[in-house]
Protein: RNA-binding protein
Amino acid sequence: MSIYVGNLPFEVDQEDVVEVFKEYGKIKRVHLPMDRETGKKRGFAFVEMETPEEEAKAIAALDGAQWMGRELKVNQAREREPKPSFGGGNRNRDRRY
Structure:
């Protein structure tokens, strides 16, 4: 399981997120996605904790909490949805016979 943490200030780094979440249990991993084109943080993070109970405790305590002037959005992360493929996989459509 993983926790989604949204509405983060862009200047937040991994250590800041760890500092907030360590109160609720042992943190296994923190990931702050970066924008591919700008190289800047995207304003959200994913946090993995040692147990589902620790994650549930962190979600209950931090969802809607004020931090660095923003209201955090904290919930269970959803699985990544597959991207649609374009072109339909028909590699022969441009061939001339």
The domain at 2-76 is CATH 3.30.70.330 (Alpha-Beta Plaits).
